[in-house]
Design brief:
This protein is an alpha/beta fold and about 350 residues long. The protein folds into two domains: about 220 residues, Rossmann fold, CATH 3.40.50.300; about 50 residues, no CATH class. Strands 1, 2, 3, 4, 5, 6, 7, 8 and 9 form a nine-stranded mixed beta sheet that branches. The longest helix is centred in the middle third of the chain and has 20 residues. The protein is globular. Pfam families: AAA_24. InterPro entries: P-loop_NTPase.
């Protein structure tokens, strides 16, 4: 009887076969830096889109904001001439799968992810508020699936990726407030595809990149745009993240009178949490609906109805003075809950 399992009767042959198979794979080069999978956020006019031109070229822009024609220079390609294609996650996946192989594109930029996901969030909120959705959970599930599909579609091709969204100044309970246009739940989902989160900051007449977080560990430094047009800044960010020596090193921001530099407009008023340095970095939910849907997605409640009751009860008991205090109270409360099995 002939055996179909190679090497069962010959131990030496098995060893040779395994070694031959193993050597067919290429050993990982520890000196090669990982792809730049970066998030970049800043106010309108800060130079977020211009930063795309400083990334590795040629670059492909998914132009959800419709501003690609304002960019001059670089070797920039567009996903599609049709505006609707740049705002449809399904079309983005189809066009990337169809055209990326052999294209030699080095960087894919999503400018901005807010315009892609924000419409899904707004539609879900409106439909739920108008009771058009029989299953209110499903609207948020659909939104989460779109974000997952977008991430997988963009990162599947091994290029550098830049995710862009905006910061907006406003007032919250009479205090100056900076809001990120990409909600907290979507930022959390996006982190699995990132190795650094960057923010554009200004000090007097210069601008720089604050490394808010990195998967490698280093953060908190500012890399200033010393040459203009962000020239050489991505390379200096890598040098800071991965400890590569170079002529240009990141420099700490200047601290007038020994105080930390405030990454906010000079005419802004300090808020009621300014005494706590960590409080400035506290995130907030875009709306109560987002906070409630996040809690359901964490498995803390079986459905939206139960989460709404808990949210209203906690808000009544804690009486938070602003959105930051409610964010801290709600996230702390949710994380203490045991995962609930969702109802069918």
């Amino acid at each position: 009887m002939e055996h179909r399992f190679a090497g069962v009767s010959n131990h030496g042959a098995v060893t040779a076969d395994i070694r031959d198979c193993a050597m067919a794979f290429k050993r990982v080069d520890k000196d090669i830096l990982p792809p730049r999978r970066w998030a970049l956020k800043g106010r309108y006019g800060d130079g977020k889109s211009t930063f795309i031109l400083a990334m590795r070229q040629p670059a492909l822009i998914v132009d959800a904001d419709g501003r690609r024609h304002e960019l001059k220079g670089g070797e920039l390609y567009e996903l599609s001439e049709e505006p609707a294609d740049n705002r449809s996650v399904e079309r983005i996946q189809d066009l990337l799968d169809q055209n990326m192989p052999g294209s030699n594109i080095k960087t894919i930029a999503i400018d901005s992810v807010t315009s892609l996901i924000g419409s899904s969030i707004a539609r879900a909120m409106l439909d739920n508020a108008a009771d058009r959705n029989r299953n209110k959970n499903q609207a948020w599930v659909d939104k989460a699936e779109k974000m997952r599909l977008l991430q997988d579609s963009v990162t599947a091709h091994g290029t550098h990726v830049l995710w862009v969204w905006h910061l907006e100044d406003g007032q919250l309970n009479g205090q100056h407030h900076v809001r990120e246009t990409l909600p907290e739940t979507e930022r959390e989902r996006l982190f699995r595809s990132l190795n650094a989160s960057l923010r554009i900051v200004r000090e007097s007449d210069r601008r720089g990149i604050l490394v808010e977080w990195s998967r490698e560990g280093p953060s908190g430094m500012v890399i200033w745009d010393e040459q203009g047009h962000w020239q050489g800044v991505p390379e200096r960010i890598e040098a800071a993240l991965y400890g590569r020596s170079g002529d240009a090193k990141p420099t700490p921001p200047k601290s007038p009178l020994g105080k930390p530099m405030v990454m906010e407009p000079a005419n802004s008023e300090p808020d009621d949490v300014s005494a706590n340095p960590q409080a400035r970095n506290v995130l907030t939910f875009h709306s109560p609906n987002e906070a409630i849907s996040w809690a359901v997605e964490q498995g803390a409640f079986a459905d939206v109805f139960a989460a709404e009751i808990a949210y209203d009860q906690l808000r009544g008991e804690m009486k938070p003075r602003n959105a930051k205090e409610m964010y801290i109270a709600w996230t702390g409360f949710v994380r203490k809950q045991k995962p609930e099995r969702r109802r069918a």
